[in-house]
Design goal:
Number of helices: 10
Organism: Glutamicibacter mishrai
Number of strands: 13
Family: Belongs to the NAD(P)-dependent epimerase/dehydratase family.
Radius of gyration: 19 Å
Mean pLDDT: 93
CATH class of the largest domain: Alpha Beta
EC number: 5.1.3.2
Number of domains: 2
Catalytic activity: UDP-alpha-D-glucose = UDP-alpha-D-galactose
Largest sheet: 7 strands, parallel
Structural class: alpha/beta
Strand content: 5-15%
Keywords: Carbohydrate metabolism, Isomerase, NAD
């Protein structure tokens, strides 16, 4: 009896896999390897290089391992890039999720934890986003994540699916020095890559309606995030009824410029960031209230900003 992790060879997925293994929940990994890293998956964890668009193979894997639940992280995860590639985004995130749900139905698996995103909120009109805040996504990525939530809720009505969706935005840090964020679009990897090459990092957009003109985000540590996914899976398996969505947020916003200051302090490398134009699809501010997840999933921020930067930087050096 196992838990399937789609996208389990990715940055977030690999942390979830290890957290599952630590509590003997027997992870099984499916990953298309479009952005995953095979070395992120422990050798003793069953691994399948399969795209979730292939529901037949998914069904076979689920039945072979007697999977009792799915943590669904696979997908195309870049808000800015999704504006350029909307069809790819919807294929991977909407069609892929529908195929996964079909495979689960065919194998009679009833538990799913869905990796959603704070991008479903778009640019909220409130300073602190709650689960009741209206959803107005501003990118195909955000739209696809919201549709994924709808698909899961509709399948729950039709088939009795037990589920919850976890919304979060900027995931940083590392729980193990060999697990790094390999994304070519995320802020931390871009900053560290520039520093390793002796270049100045870039800030995309300095004219937002924020205190210092740069985007404000909710930065959460990937290891804390993984624990929340595992706790949600445990609760579903135990038959506990969860809310349909939870925000995994800090309640505090950190600007891109503040991130740059923390990076300079942690690395000891002084620099002046290059100011670039905004990227399409990036809202000015998203800060989420995590109180509901704290109540039901034991969610908490266990790391300071500097600890997030330090662990991410150390992991990034394993690539050099």
């Amino acid at each position: 009896m196992s838990w399937l992790v789609t996208g389990g060879a990715g940055y977030i997925g690999s942390h979830v896999v290890r957290s599952l293994a630590e509590v003997s929940m027997e992870p099984i990994v499916v990953d298309s390897m479009s952005s995953g890293v095979r070395g992120f998956v422990p050798q003793d964890v069953p691994f399948y290089s399969v795209n979730i668009l292939n529901s037949e193979k998914l069904t076979d894997i689920i039945m072979r391992h007697q999977v009792r639940g799915v943590i669904h992280l696979a997908g195309y995860k870049y808000a800015g890039e999704s504006v350029k590639n909307p069809l790819l985004t919807f294929e991977q995130n909407v069609t892929g999720t529908a195929n996964l749900l079909q495979a689960m139905a065919d194998a009679r698996v009833e538990n799913i934890v869905f990796s959603s995103s704070a991008a479903v909120y778009g640019t909220p009109s409130v300073d602190l986003v709650t689960e009741e805040t209206g959803t107005f996504p501003e990118s195909p990525y955000g739209q696809s994540k919201l549709i994924g939530e709808w698909l899961i809720r509709d399948q729950a009505v039709a088939m009795g699916l037990k589920h919850t969706s976890l919304r979060y935005f900027n995931v940083v840090g590392s729980g193990s020095e060999e697990l790094f964020d390999a994304s070519p679009h995320n802020l931390f990897p871009l900053v560290f890559k520039a520093l390793n090459e002796g270049k100045a990092p870039k800030i995309f957009g300095t004219d937002y309606d924020t205190a210092d003109g740069t985007c404000v985000r909710d930065y959460v540590h990937v290891a804390d995030l993984a624990l929340a996914h595992v706790e949600a899976a445990k609760k579903l398996e135990a038959g506990t009824e969860l809310e349909p969505v939870y925000n995994l947020g800090s309640g505090d916003g950190v600007s891109v410029r503040e991130i740059m200051d923390a990076v300079a302090k942690v690395t000891g490398v002084p620099f002046t960031a290059i100011q670039e134009a905004r990227r399409p699809g990036d809202p000015a501010r998203i800060v989420a209230d995590g109180q509901l997840a704290a109540r039901d999933l034991g969610w908490q921020m266990r790391h300071t900003l500097e600890e997030m930067v330090d662990s991410a930087y150390r992991a990034s050096q394993s690539r050099v």
